[in-house]
User: Fold these one by one.
Assistant:
Number 1:
Amino acid sequence: MVCLINISIEREFAMASLEDEFGDIIKKARQGQSLTLEDVIDKTGITETTLRALEGCKQPPTSNEVQAIALFLSLDSQTLETIGREQWQPLASPDWVAETVETVRGNIGGYEVKGYLIYDSTTKDAVMIDTAYNPKQMLQRIDVLELRLNGICLTHGHSDHAYGIDTVVAIHPTTVYIGQGDMSMVTEYRSSMDIQPARDGNILKIGSIDLRFMATPGHTPGGVCYSTNPLCFVGDTLFAGSIGRSCPATLYSIHLQSVKERILRMDESVVLLPGHGPATTVGEEKRHNPFVTGQALPS
């Protein structure tokens, strides 16, 4: 049984630890390219003991190790080393974000997850972005803020983001949106609620706010981001300085394409709100994300 622990609410988007460390990043890049530990060892000359320690976040990398691994895995060595030495954090989000977005945090097996309520403060219309594996707290915040729920938008179908939608809909009947490719992940809920595909380009009105659906497959086949223009809820498609794991690994190249051609095509000032870890911006990711920095990006 999974227990919910250390749950809190935040309306301040303060600086927090990155979701991924050096080891997480290189492991995602290696597995995404269907490479074995032996492949990396053979091409870089790094010993198995050292590589396992690096991927397990048990020791910091040397500059030579960063250079060798980054070259082989097509990562940017400079930004990768900066993260490896814990020398970068994204700037805290501007104050206006908290005026229209409520962040709810949940915890699944010690793993923090975030969900959001975006709302029009005048009309009190709202949409939930993922459940944070914490429907009870989501419902509490809806009540405290006196919001009217106009929809639940899932960035993908994994349980840490979708769990509890039935609990919410039972009290606030509304439509649930999810990418077509992830529809099979919420089969258990389909008989008891209205679940619709989140089609690329569709717009959901939240009072005076337009929430645009943006297909971003990669973390999962049906991954979707939700953008208001100054804000974008990116789920596990992107983390500050990293990306989510590609599930399955065969989606890795599509995943990178979604990040480069959809998310990073937006204005550099757009605030990105992920499912795990701190908020970031398009500009920060262009400059600090090892998966994309130093590569030609679509204009």
Number 2:
Amino acid sequence: MNTTKNSQKEFLDILFNGRNKDYGAYDLRVRYDKRVRNAIATMASFALVILAAYSFSSRSVAATVNTKAIVNEVILDDLKMPEAKLVPPPPPPPATPPPALKPTIRVTTPRIVEDQQVAEKEQPPRMDEIIKTSVSTVNAAGNVNGIDPDMIPDIGKGAGTGVVSVPTPAKEENDHPFTFVEQMPAFPGGEEALMKYLLNNTTYPHIAMENGIEGTVYVGFVVDREGNVIDVRLAGQKKGGGLDEEAVRVIQKMPKWKPGKQNGRAVAVVYSLPVKFKLEQ
């Protein structure tokens, strides 16, 4: 007979003496030991199940790892790259023939000479000869339906340099000043500026004023290739009283002019100007 249980039960009987033992607290205390044993047994059972499952899983993994893998050997053939084919460059485009040019005719530089001194080859061309030609410094044959040779620089001289240059015309045999050219010299600013210059820079001489001398003095000079006024001289009858000297002085002090041109190049040109002196009444 278990004296421990009896002592425990006796203790509980004494504790619940005269109390309601059917309430539940008495029964819980009496069966406490049994519940503890049942809990321990349940936990031990769960532990055994978990250990068994782990052991079974470990054996399955080991069996899978020890399985020999079957590998099929694959042999690759040598890959041969195709040979690159050389493509020949395209042929150059055909050369474009130069355009047809108009015929050119030489324009004679005008000079004042006697009729007997004019050679046949120096006769100026007629208008009907100039209509279907291009004015130039030389005579050359061509196509009347062609283009002006001046539109194609350096024609017939190869590839060129890409820079358009004006051909240098042949030097005239007589390098003397011209009396008439295609483009006459011009004072900077035009005729109005020239008249203003003469008005502002001309001083009436005292001797001429005291003696009542007035009139127009004609002064001749040359405008050279650079536009300088040179070779200033009287071109008419002297007036006296200092008018001639004053007119020459004013012309000599002039600024550079725009030079005259003949056949596209600057040339020296003879020029004359009237300088008018008039006393106020």
